[in-house]
């Protein structure tokens, strides 16, 4: 139990239907509104950013749109709403939070040249590069040419299943710079060959 950041009643954590443990601050009504005090708002935005990334990792979600704050029953409902206190995060506040996340490189606007939809970096591209190379190594696919589709939709589910193409390309680009991957043209587009290489660490 912790105190409300406005000094009100005590709050408790709550587990959602998907098994995600919401922090106690999620039960504080002020958490869902933009605060007039810049210092307080900075704390709120930081807490929201952490919550969004943790939940995205829990549910393996990659995209968050401003519109998700308005859609009842969306995959983000568990954190963008709290029916127990009759509160929800409003679209302008979510857009402000997403802007801050992009500034801090924990998200990137996708598609580019708009500010209402982001790709979330609950793993940085450098981390995805390591996950990608480890997967190729442990599944015995070093020196094998794989299509990007083989990686995104493997026959056996993997940590890379469903990874957005934008993140996959960034991860592969990182591996090519350390001589651990080669991009190769294949009949139906692009492929990649993973090499033992050197992590450069």
Automatic annotation (TrEMBL):
Keywords: Protein transport, Transport
Gene3D superfamilies reported in the protein's UniProt record: Winged helix' DNA-binding domain. Chain C. Domain 1 (1.10.10.570), Winged helix-like DNA-binding domain superfamily/Winged helix DNA-binding domain (1.10.10.10)
InterPro entries (alphabetical): ESCRT-II_cplx_Vps25-sub (IPR008570), ESCRT-II_cplx_Vps25-sub_N (IPR014041), WH-like_DNA-bd_sf (IPR036388), WH_DNA-bd_sf (IPR036390)
A single Gene Ontology CC term: ESCRT II complex
Family: Belongs to the VPS25 family.
PANTHER family, sorted: VACUOLAR PROTEIN SORTING-ASSOCIATED PROTEIN VPS25, VACUOLAR PROTEIN-SORTING-ASSOCIATED PROTEIN 25
Name under which the protein is recorded: ESCRT-II complex vps25 subunit
Organism: Sparassis crispa
